[in-house]
Amino acid sequence: MIVLEGIDQIRHIPNAIVTSGTFDGVHIGHQKILKRIVQAAKEENGHSVVLTFWPHPRFILFPEDDTLKLLSNFEEKAAIMDEVGIDYIIKIEFTAEFSQLSSEQFIQEVLVDRLGTKKLIIGYDHKFGKNREGSFEYLKENNKRFKFEVEEIPRQDIDDVGVSSTKIRKALLQGNVDQASEYMGRHYSLIGTVVSGKKIGTGLGFPTANIQLKAAYKVVPKDGVYAVKVHMKEGTFDAMLNIGVRPTVDGVNRVIEVHIFDFDEDIYGQELKISFINYLRDEMKFDSLESLKNQLGKDKKESIRILRQQ
């Protein structure tokens, strides 16, 4: 797969079968569209091309609104698209200036003049251009003038999977990480660096790695305890993770900390990827550290039971 950075890098691609969008999370609904353009590219002896935008348009259009959290960064999106079999990703920098581009300008300047699109495939509700004025109907009415075919993924094909990025975010914020995994076709993950903590877990016999997230704009699941998988250079390990303020010992700052099973090495400064497998329980305040320690032992046993089934 080839990644082209920015509009200036776009070049004519023979028999380009194109789709466009933000594709946050690249969930199973998105994957239907992506698999269709891969199939169409094979049928046309062409190349599958995804036009995607970064940063997310809402970050630019509504900079004062920090409520939107994303399911994936660009690298994560690109990795999934590569697995699906996409030939080209064109990463378009979304700027205030770009947001003023009309649908007519976007089609003519990007899809026609630069890319030489043969066929455009979009979801049933896809809109593009300034104020989202472009639509499938507009494209169909003008396809002879633009000289490329247009195909819309039927509403039923998308709705039958019952998935949206909004639904996935909601599931994560409710702790339903297994449901989010079903929607995404893979486990939801966070990436972060191991930083120094207060070593409270070590004193309880459950040493933890405190995680500083790589991307602050990503969705952090509901506070609580989770069974997780930890991926790092030493390999993949079973673990349990806590998100919250640690009310028994702290009660102030929200932290993400992970206890990796059967592992005792110095990993400060290392980057970890954490895959969320199952939600165990809410974060709780215990009467004593001994009660907390007993509960952590139960959490570990339950995590091991769940993770062995994966």
UniProtKB/TrEMBL annotation:
Keywords: ATP-binding, FAD, Flavoprotein, FMN, Kinase, Multifunctional enzyme, Nucleotide-binding, Nucleotidyltransferase, Transferase. SMART domains: Flavokinase (SM00904). Residues 183-308 form the Riboflavin kinase domain. GO terms for molecular function: FMN adenylyltransferase activity; riboflavin kinase activity. Belongs to the ribF family. NCBIfam families: PRK05627.1-3, PRK05627.1-5, ribF. This is Riboflavin biosynthesis protein. It comes from Reichenbachiella agarivorans.
